[in-house]
């Protein structure tokens, strides 16, 4: 009943690997678990941090309801970054996605009014929602899938709120019957870092 | 990570949500009235995908939403053209979602559920009967949209066919956008519409920053 010498097997009751040597078993150290989604989780965190940076930068241009919305949405994005960083484990990121930041830095510099801010944020929120829709196909883990599915609709709602504040109609803020991937951010084009 | 873990997680969510939604699951297909002849999903010789039950629930909720918007439109209560236009647009989107869920049900080997969810209809009947104003209508459809979005979220990760996760998420995102549009109207943003008084209990976005399964209709309810 003893496995061949040197054959590692799993202890059915505890899930820890054992090495059988003769009649004795030696418990092996459990290798660290690395989520297959760690890189995608880190990418998502970096994108979320880029949006936090954007909202923080534009806040001085805002007041009233729009400022409240911007602060709330920045807080949401920070929360999203935190949970994705937790999922990323050792791959967790502290810095916003540099390429994404660079892609709208010129737009940031040119902002002069709340309407400019709303337009920039509206476009970014829609791109992030599309990015999560795209990620759903690639995620392997249940926890990461659940995270993406819990965050995508909130990004969608951000976009609608911003669009409505811009005066857009429901047909304009929800132009399709199914959330799509158009405008999604490709981790290859916007690498972490 | 296996499908069993996903299912356990979601079943646990469903159990807690049934209490919050106050719904009673209808095990018998006869409970549906017009669906009395709906065949059972499994026989001794035929096994269909367990995804069928979730997809039937999805189409039943979509049909309920379509019917609710149509009832609202016919009530004479929606007097603001912009709100009536929103209702018509959302009803059309729900009809498209229903058709998609029905097609996927057939593809998974089961009979599509093609009418409104009878258990949900029965539970919400008192609120429909009590509609007296445009604000009542918008608040009711806001609540229903939130329930539908939460139900799709509860389904994520529970499908045997993992490709259905992407479909469910793509619909969930649209229902969440519906919640946002209606929440903006109820919040009086950017300006009050029609005669709807501004209220603070119907946020256009998830205040916690994450979609949850709170209020979701439990799998099996009414279908």
Name a few traits of the molecule.
heterodimer, A: 193 residues, mainly alpha, 3-stranded antiparallel β-sheet, 3 strands, 6% strand, disordered N terminus, B: 223 residues, 6 helices, globular
Give an overview in words.
- The complex is a heterodimer of chains A (193) and B (223).
- Chain A has 193 residues and is mainly alpha-helical.
- Chain A is built from 6 helices and 3 strands.
- A 3-stranded antiparallel beta sheet of chain A has the order 1-2-3, with no helix packed on it.
- In chain A, helix 1 runs parallel beside helix 3 (98-110), helix 1 runs antiparallel to helix 4 (114-136) and helix 4 packs antiparallel against helix 5 (142-165).
- Chain A has helices at 38-58, 64-88, 98-110, 114-136, 142-165, 170-173, and strands spanning 8-10, 17-21, 24-27.
- Chain B is mainly α.
- In chain B, 57% of the residues lie in helices and 0% in strands.
- In chain B, helix 2 (51-74) runs antiparallel to helix 3, helix 2 (51-74) packs parallel to helix 4 and helix 2 (51-74) packs antiparallel against helix 5 (134-155).
- The two termini of chain B are 29 Å apart.
- In chain B, 48% of the residues are buried.
- The interface between A and B is large, with 43 and 46 residues.
């Amino acid at each position: 009943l003893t496995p061949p010498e040197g054959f590692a097997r799993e202890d059915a009751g505890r899930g820890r690997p054992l090495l059988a040597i003769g009649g004795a078993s030696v418990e092996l150290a459990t290798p660290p678990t690395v989520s297959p989604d760690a890189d995608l989780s880190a990418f998502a965190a970096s994108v979320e941090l880029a949006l936090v940076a954007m909202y923080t930068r534009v806040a001085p241009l805002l007041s009233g309801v729009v400022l409240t919305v911007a602060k709330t949405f920045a807080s949401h994005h920070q929360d999203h970054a935190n949970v994705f960083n937790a999922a990323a484990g050792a791959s967790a990121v502290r810095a916003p996605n540099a390429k994404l930041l660079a892609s709208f830095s010129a737009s940031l510099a040119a902002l002069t009014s709340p309407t400019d801010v709303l337009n920039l944020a509206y476009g970014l929120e829609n791109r992030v929602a599309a990015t999560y829709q795209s990620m759903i196909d690639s995620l392997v883990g249940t926890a990461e899938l659940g995270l993406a599915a819990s965050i995508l609709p909130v990004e969608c709602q951000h976009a609608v709120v911003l669009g409505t504040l811009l005066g857009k109609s429901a047909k304009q803020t929800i132009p399709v019957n199914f959330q799509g991937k158009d405008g999604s951010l490709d981790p290859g084009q916007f690498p972490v870092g | 990570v296996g499908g069993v873990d996903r299912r356990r997680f979601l079943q646990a969510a469903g159990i807690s949500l049934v209490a919050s939604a106050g719904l009673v699951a209808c095990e018998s297909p006869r409970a549906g009235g017009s669906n009395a002849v709906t065949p059972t999903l499994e026989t001794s010789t035929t096994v269909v995908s367990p995804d069928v039950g979730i997809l039937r629930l999805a189409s039943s909720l979509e049909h309920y939403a379509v019917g609710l918007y149509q009832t609202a439109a016919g009530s004479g209560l929606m007097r603001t053209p912009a709100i009536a236009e929103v209702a018509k647009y959302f009803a059309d989107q729900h009809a498209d979602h229903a058709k998609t869920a029905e097609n996927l049900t057939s593809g998974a080997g089961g009979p599509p559920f093609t009418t409104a969810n009878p258990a949900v209809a029965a539970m919400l009947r008192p609120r429909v009967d009590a509609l007296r104003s445009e604000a009542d209508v918008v608040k009711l459809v806001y609540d229903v949209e939130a329930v539908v979005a939460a139900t799709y979220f509860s389904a994520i990760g529970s499908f045997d066919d993992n490709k259905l996760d992407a479909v469910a998420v793509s619909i969930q995102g649209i229902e969440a956008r519906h919640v946002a549009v209606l929440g903006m109207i109820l919040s009086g943003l950017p300006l009050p519409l029609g005669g709807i008084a501004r209220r603070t209990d119907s946020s256009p976005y998830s205040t916690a920053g994450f979609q949850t399964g709170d209020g979701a209709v439990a799998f099996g309810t009414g279908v």
